[in-house]
Design goal:
The complex is a heterodimer of chains A (181) and B (277).
Chain A: H1 13-37, H2 46-57, H3 60-78, H4 85-103, H5 110-140, H6 145-174
Helix pairs in contact in A: 1-2, 1-3, 2-3, 2-4, 2-5, 2-6, 3-4, 5-6
Chain B: H1 7-29, H2 34-110, E1 114-126, E2 131-135, E3 148-151, E4 154-163, E5 166-171, E6 178-183, E7 188-194, E8 204-210, E9 220-223, E10 234-244, E11 249-256, E12 265-272
Antiparallel strand pairs in B: 1-2, 1-12, 2-5, 3-4, 3-12, 4-5, 6-7, 6-9, 7-8, 8-11, 9-10, 10-11
The chains are: A mainly alpha (181), B alpha+beta (277).
Chain lengths: 181, 277
């Protein structure tokens, strides 16, 4: 049994409001103060982390829709010109949910759920950083991948992961009834 | 391929593609994206609120980090101020020493017929009877009993006791003290003496002055000169007179020129120089 697998049905109105308002506020937060809260001089992808958590704690469908909204809002509020985040976030939300369904969702035990969520968040943060590097290549035309590791990939991945921890805590709190302990 | 049969997946990916491609095309062709503009407008209050909150938090943090900086700066400035105070105190002390030495050398230069040495007052005993100074020069410097002790301001007294590395001197107000003086305006010569009766008032006595010699308050008395004191060193000023009808003389009370309580260094007149001899 997993948390996500129990939530394949329709979302309750409360959850719809939570995810709608949540992704909007997080996108607005990221667009307004993202560059100021960045760790290691990298802006965290809070909407991507929120998308991943939606996928982990709810379902791949919720993850995909939240990713779609999150990517679009991030581009709309903070991006300029080239826009690929809606597609990337949607696919991230969907496939993370898909993988979790196959490998197992966070689980019923709080500590286990926390650790497994953390692992997936780290993976998604890394993927987000790689996607940022791809976007830079597409925008700038060229970039040395190896030199970008310490300057772009690692800082952004770590920054996203660290800022996703408070969000993970909130999700753990909101979904606490699902845990057996 | 199984994935493409999932209608939800196809729908959501299609929507994602539309939301990715349309804004990109609109941006590249220079067209305005109404949806994007609308979202930016709608989110403005939230972004402004987040920005305001972040400004507040960073301002708050900056206030305290600034406070820490100010505290450190204050400590550094305090230390700097203390060091400047020390330096100022040292400079003041050095300046005082320099002034004293300059006065001493001026004094020595103006009395070349006498040999003298400077000494520091290392102790002072004051009682109802006398003021006794302990000086840091003794027999090793040729100091002997009855040598005159002066400052650049005037006569202090004379040496009463000598040891190795130290000596003692009594002030003019001591009842045993006596110094030859003269008053320039009248040409009067006399002996100024310490007085038991006036010692506590810090005054000396000039006794047996002929009645026909009139001195007024404030008149200056100088040393008449001799083996003990060089001539023309200020001794004191007339304060008052007490006539004696039977002897047709008058006794004058004299206030010494030197403040005996404030003496910290003195000059000991060690004798006549070879030049004088």
């Amino acid at each position: 049994m997993s948390i996500g697998s129990e939530n394949e049905g329709r979302l309750s109105l409360k959850k719809i409001i939570f995810y709608s308002v949540g992704i909007f506020l997080i996108a607005a937060f990221q667009a307004s103060v993202g560059s100021r809260i960045g760790l290691f001089s990298a802006t965290p992808s809070l909407t991507l982390a929120f998308t991943a958590l939606a996928s982990l704690f709810e379902s791949k469908k919720t993850g995909a829709v939240v990713g779609l909204a999150g990517g679009f809002l991030t581009d709309a509020l903070g991006g300029a010109g080239f826009s690929l985040l809606p597609l990337f976030y949607t696919l991230t939300g969907w496939f993370l949910g898909e993988i979790c369904e196959r490998l197992g969702h966070p689980g019923r035990q709080a500590l286990g759920a926390f650790l497994r969520s953390l692992m997936w968040l780290a993976a998604v943060s890394g993927a987000g950083a790689v996607f940022t590097a791809i976007l830079i290549v597409l925008s700038a035309g060229r970039m040395n991948f190896f030199s970008s590791i310490p300057h772009i990939l690692l800082p952004e991945a770590v920054s996203t992961l660290l800022w996703s921890l408070p969000m993970l805590g909130i999700f753990m709190l909101l979904y606490r009834k699902k845990f057996s302990e | 391929m199984k994935l493409l049969k999932n209608k939800f997946f196809v729908a959501v990916v299609a929507a994602a593609l539309i939301l990715s491609i349309v804004p990109t095309v609109l941006a590249l062709t220079g067209h305005k994206d109404l949806l994007r503009s609308g979202l930016v407008a709608v989110s403005y209050p939230f972004r402004a609120a987040f920005g305001f909150a972040a400004d507040g938090i960073s301002g708050f943090a900056r206030y305290f980090s600034g406070m820490n900086g100010l505290i450190k700066e204050n400590e550094a400035l305090r230390e700097e101020l203390d060091s400047y105070r020390d330096a100022a105190a040292r400079a003041e002390s050095a300046e005082g020493e320099l002034r004293r030495l300059r006065e001493y050398y001026d004094f020595v230069a103006s009395h070349t017929t006498y040999t003298m040495t400077d000494a520091r007052v290392t102790g002072r005993q004051s009682n109802s009877y006398s003021v006794i100074y302990t000086l840091n020069r003794g027999s090793e410097c040729g100091i002997k009993v009855n040598m005159g002790v002066v400052t650049t301001r005037g006569v202090v007294g004379y040496i009463t006791e000598v040891g190795v590395g130290w000596s003692r001197a009594v002030a003019l107000t001591d009842p045993t003290a006596a110094v030859g003086v003269y008053e320039p305006s009248t040409g009067l010569y006399g002996t100024l003496e310490g007085s038991v009766a006036h010692r506590q008032d810090g005054l000396c006595l000039l006794p047996r002055v002929p009645a026909d010699v009139t001195m007024k308050e404030g008149d200056k008395l100088l040393t008449s000169g001799g083996r003990v004191f060089p001539p023309d060193i200020e001794v004191g000023r007339i304060v008052s007179s007490e006539p004696d009808a039977y002897t047709h003389t008058a006794s004058y009370l004299v206030e010494p020129s030197v403040d005996f309580d404030g003496v910290t260094s003195v000059i000991i007149i060690t004798g006549l120089s070879a030049e004088a001899g």
